[in-house]
Design a protein that fits this description.
Length: about 500
Amino acid sequence: MQSSIAMQRRFLHVLAGLLPLALLAASCGGGDDDGENGAGAPSTTSEAVTSAGGGTDVADEAAPGDEVGFAGSIELTLDQDPGCELLGPVCLLPFPSDALTIDDASTVTGRRVALPTVLMPMNSDGVLVDPARQNRADGFSPGSAGLVLIPGLDPSGSALAPITDIARSLADDSGSVVLDATTGERWPHWAELDANATDPERRGLFVRPAQNYVDGHRIVIGLRNLVDESGAPIEPTDTFRAYRDRLESGVAEVEERRPAMERVFADLEAAGVSRDELVVAWEFTVISTESLTGPLVHMRDDAFAILGDDAPAFSVDAVSRNDDDTYTVIEGTYDVPLYLTNDGSTGNGLNLTDDPDLPTVNGTFASGLVDRPEVRALLEHMASPEWGRVWASTPQAGFLPANRRFVPVAPAPGRGGETMQPAVAAKLISDAIAVDRLRLDGSGMMPPSIGFIADGEPGSFFRGMVDWADGRRTIDEVFADIDADWAALRDES
């Protein structure tokens, strides 16, 4: 009782804290998770490329292979505000990115999310999203979809894996490469354009992991050999070209990031991806388990400590039976520890008064046992003979019906045609309540001819127990049948 109540309230607290994170991740895509408002209007840059020898045009092909040697220079004009991700044409893309974090030796990952408030998206009321809660994390969600804006992209022509062919993402010539840089493992994924964006110039590309990333690991995403709908190659942004082609920019913000970008290129090259193929590549850190679940675990443990061996305070306001007299309705409230600010209503966040990461209890919250129409409808359905019939005929559920007047009218599938009468079911329930420990029959661990045969035909043990429970055979007859099957198995061996 205590565990159920505490965890129920705990989930409400967690949802209250995590909902803004989901909204933020969606906003960075220009709308909801699928970016219904698009990925934002692209910025422009101007550039002039000069070789190390002073001539114009592209970088010298005889570029040095070390991390500090430049092949030439590039003149950059950055339109993004300080704190933006500089690789893309809009401020917060690509996302997620370690460019939107800072070093923090106090965290497990060594990083801390640092989304700038002044650059956050606005809600419908013109209010900037407050990233304070997200900025406590030491990385990004394990299920993060990479989001990047590449106007005119043709996913199919660029060999990007669709959701219908995820294995394609691990092919040697895949246009997208996702790498767990902590282990060097290629990560399965698929890529898709924002289906909700109406402006092609604002349609972002999602790179979605086929399975969640590992907590605390570093992820690298690289997109290479991309083409537009005409088949023409897509060129990288000038900032990314400065990194890829080792062109000195003279821009402090760009040059400060160069060592990190060289690490990205090195990781991809180790995975067989040449840097000169890349149109964009970036890295991000996955949130650690401690940062992700720490507040949740703390609130659970603290709430249990507060309760001790007692049940939470509660009040019962009304008790009634439903019209069919099949269940009891109890209305009332029970108090649970409150870890949100103010009164815990919608819009309040975690109460971080004593610790920047772990919430402090802020009194109690009265959680109601409410008699709502939808609750009554569900209870009535689950107490009905119709639901009992469906439930009892499901192989995974078993025979015991919830409705005491329910009598099986058809053999249960996969049970060898056997059914169980309510009197027998009631006896099994009363016997189970009387013992300290209840264990299932274990027929699934027995040889097929004795336990439960793979094609659905019950073996001698399972069949015998049903026959004995229904009164068709004595227990001695059942044991004799089982012993005979064991003897036959010994003879065969």
